[in-house]
Amino acid sequence: FLSLAADDPDFMGREIAEQPETVERILSELAPRVSTGDLWRELGLPHFRRVAVLGCGTSLNAGRIIAHAFGAFGAIVNTAVTASEAGAVVLDAETLVIAASQSGETADVLRALDELQTGRGRVLALTNSMHSTLARRADGVLNCSAGPEIGVAATKTFVAQVVTGVCLALSAMVARGTILRAQADAIVDDLRRTPDRLENAIAVSRQWVPDIVESVRDAQGFLFLGRGAGVVYAAEGALKLKELTYRWAEHYPAGELKHGPLALVEEGTPVVVIESADGRLSANVAEVRSRGGRVISIGGPGSSIPVVDGHPEAFARSGRVSQGRGGNTFAACGPLESVVPMQILARELAIALGRDVDKPRNLAKSVTVE
Ligand code: AGP
After folding, report:
1. Mind listing the GO biological process terms from this record (predicted)?
2. Packing angle between helix 194-216 and helix 19-30, nearest 10 degrees?
């Protein structure tokens, strides 16, 4: 098992290890301007009623969390748009369009901006490259400040996009008076615990993942399950596993399992489960186990990888805000730290299988063709 440290032989290992300090840096820059509303105001963008976040791949997954955050903090109608399918999307003139792209050069994203009939002055770029084509074309630019990412698989830029985008959502809701400054302060305080949570996730993953890799080494297909925001992280985990190991991986909302994917589960099928605080995944886990599936559970009691302090109440403590009448809640970033064991699982399994983790076959860091 390769240690995750500054002297790792691959960029991906180093970039995973950098995630806590990346978030620390982002928050020290952004946090003072969140609960004042200034982070949003300084962008100089017009008032909006709805939000659409667009992107591809990992940036799209980050976009889904950001879109959720606008809904959770301010009941803003929101959607995440697959950039390559944006031609079919109808937006009204009061929609803020957030184009999320690490490179800022992704052709599908740039084309989407041509195709979407957006209102004037309403495109915000969320990018890791302030000199990119996207940054030049947008009406406002927010730097996700992850620093250079060399590994083709996005890791630290995903975490940076989520944290930066959630700070933006919170700041915008303060600026429009939808959320009180004191409430925003409480959420920012919780966000400041993110680096520690990521550090903890790296430590426990280093301890637990090697044995798991041995047990799933020969598996040809994987399922990733979650509920709520956990579904998006399941999607990101499945994407990492596919691109690094060349093994099939599908993600589903856990409730969908019995509507079809359960037929895939047989003796030894690895099923990665992102636990939720409400315990509603236990029935799904039981269904998988009774078919002989190999459950890799992240975050709950008795988890294979007890990332979130080892018990689900930790999710409940993690900056939840009321989502309105139904009494549902949504953690600021959802179970963000759950992505760490999935990144490490994908990397370690890829190394065990002899893959090049920095340059997976058939893929490029920046996809400049449609
Ligand atoms: C992520 O691991 C992938 N390499 C890929 O999905 C990537 O996120 C996608 O191509 C979007 O790139 P961008 O963020 O530079 O637009």
Report:
1. fructose 6-phosphate metabolic process; protein N-linked glycosylation; UDP-N-acetylglucosamine metabolic process
2. 160
Q: How far apart are CA 182 and CA 35, in angstroms?
A: 8
- Ligand 1 center from residue 157 Cα (angstroms): 10
Instruction: Summarize pLDDT for 101-123 with one digit per residue, the tens.
Output: 999 999 999 999 988 876 677 99
- The atom number, within ligand 1, closest to the CA of 365 reads 4
- Best probe residue, ligand 1, of 58, 133, 359 (max atoms within 8 Å of C-beta): 58
> Residue 187: which residues within 8 A CB-CB, separation 6 or more?
73, 170, 319, 321, 332
- What is this structure's pTM? 0.92
Above 0.95 for ipTM, yes or no?
yes
pLDDT, tens only, 13-23: 999 999 999 99
Query: Among 59, 347, 359, which residue has the most ligand 1 atoms within 8 Å of its CB, making it the best to mutate?
Result: 59
% of the chain surpassing 70 pLDDT: 90
CA of 163 to the centre of ligand 1 (A): 17
pLDDT band of residue 7 (cuts 50, 70, 90) is low
